[in-house]
Fold this sequence. Notes:
Layout: H1 6-32, H2 34-62, H3 84-89, E1 100-105, E2 108-112, E3 129-130, E4 135-139
Amino acid sequence: MRRLSPLTRARLAVAVTGLVAAGVLALTLAEVGGPDAGRRDRRDLARLSDLREIAQALICHGGGGAAPGQPTELADISPACLAPEAAQRLRDPRTGAPYAITWVDARTARVCGDLEDRARAWTAGWPPFDAATGCVTAALK
């Protein structure tokens, strides 16, 4: 049996270490999803924040007790509840499209966005968020 020279053993060790490192990196990227997954998560978190801000503005808008109307666009929400510049800013971070406001009944609105990762279990908060539909529900008083 032939013995390996020290130089050959060193090269073999470097090659094995490189293969192990490449394997670990591949497994990590498969688990985490890489940079694209991070960008999707940031956009989805921005959407969720926007939806909640809009829902809170709708609740404020309807809080006067008088018939506040049912805004279907951000520009229709009272400026006391949502500044006009916020109405321009609150758009889908990927497409730039406005968020959809739909009315379930006279006192309940849903604000919806198109999440990129619907399978992720997004944390609950206020107003309530339904990850399956991508909607936040605003119950006016």
